Amino acid sequence: MENKDDLGKLVSAVTVYLDELRTSGVEGLPFGKSAEQVKSGADGIKGETLDDIRAELGDCCCCSLGETRTNLVFGVGNPHADIVFVGEAPGRDEDLKGEPFVGEAGQILTRMITRMGLTRQDVYICNVLKCRPPNNRNPHADEIEKCSPFMLRQVRAIGPKAIVALGTFASQTLLANREPIGRLRGRFHDYHGVPLMPTFHPSYLLRNRGNNDLLWTVWEDMVQVLNLLKMPVPEVKRQGKG
Ligand code: URA
Q1: d(CA 122, CA 91)
Q2: Which of 68, 76, 145, 198 is least crowded, fewest Cβ atoms below 10 Å from its Cβ?
Q3: Cα 18 from chain centroid?
Q4: What is the mean pLDDT of residues 28-47?
């Protein structure tokens, strides 16, 4: 700023501009949000922690799932994890326990994490939806719209080096597209600067139990993640064709 006159002119121009916005019905501006945050739909405050986000969720009843759940399932693991796994929504076991991926599909995910040479405490695990859809039906669009910003904020608070999106809903929500998982998986996508690997959902592996090709496909996706992060890749012997 050259001098006080220039500063005065700038202040009055901004004041006029803000008055015009107010009279045209704008009640607030996204102060403090970067264009990236606005684009990602991840509201919230820069520097917020997982505890801040959990506190804000409280006893959330933003959608009807809040009325039928037993427990809100927030997420578990390392708040500073290098890898975040994002699933779809809690099932019956998760709803009862309040922890993601603890049922049969969860055991498949846990085995995959172990095979990667990691534990559930090393990574972070959460879902697009925090509450169980009745009878494990697919999430509805309005539920994803209301709930997913909390997951996006969790990812931002953790700041991982890689994200693994498990299945269609997680992949499409994070990437804001409608591509089928079969076309998305197996290669890295960009989630606001963080490499994101979509892969098949553990429930899909469960429904296709015995299909070792599918299991191997997911393993190869995980090997790409380990290689990207320069983590050791444990040797895994391929089982017979399933
Ligand atoms: N399926 C999911 O997507 N998430 C869970 O937590 C359990 C099963």
Answers
A1: 23
A2: 68
A3: 35
A4: 50
Q: Which two tokens stand for residue 240?
A: 């017979």
The fraction of the chain above a pLDDT of 70, given in percent, is 82
- Tokens 């996204």 -> residue: 30
| Residue 47, token pair as written in the block | 């520097």
pTM (2 d.p.): 0.83
Strands of the sheet with 83-87, listed across from one edge: 76-77, 124-127, 83-87, 162-166, 194-199, 189-191
Residue 209: which residues within 8 A CB-CB, separation 6 or more? none
pLDDT digits (tens, 9 = 90+) for 130-141: 999 999 999 999
Q: What is the mean pLDDT of residues 113-128?
A: 98
160 ligand 1 Cβ < 6 A: no
Determine which helix (DSSP H) or strand (DSSP E) holds 12, and give its type and residue range.
Answer: helix 4-23
| Residue 86: φ, ψ to 5° | -120, 120
The answer, yes or no, to whether any atom of ligand 1 lies below 6 A from the CB of 139, is no
Q: Please report, as a single letter, which amino acid is at residue 6.
A: D
Three-state secondary structure call for residue 19? helix
Residue type (1 letter), 79: P
Is residue 64 a contact partner of residue 147, using CB atoms and an 8 Å limit?
A: no
Name the band, by pLDDT with cuts 50, 70 and 90, for residue 70. Answer: very high
Q: 233 near 172, Cβ under 8 Å?
A: no
Q: 127 C-alpha to center of ligand 1: Å? A: 7
Which atom of ligand 1 is nearest to 88's Cα? Answer: 3
β-strands 83-87, 162-166 pairing? parallel
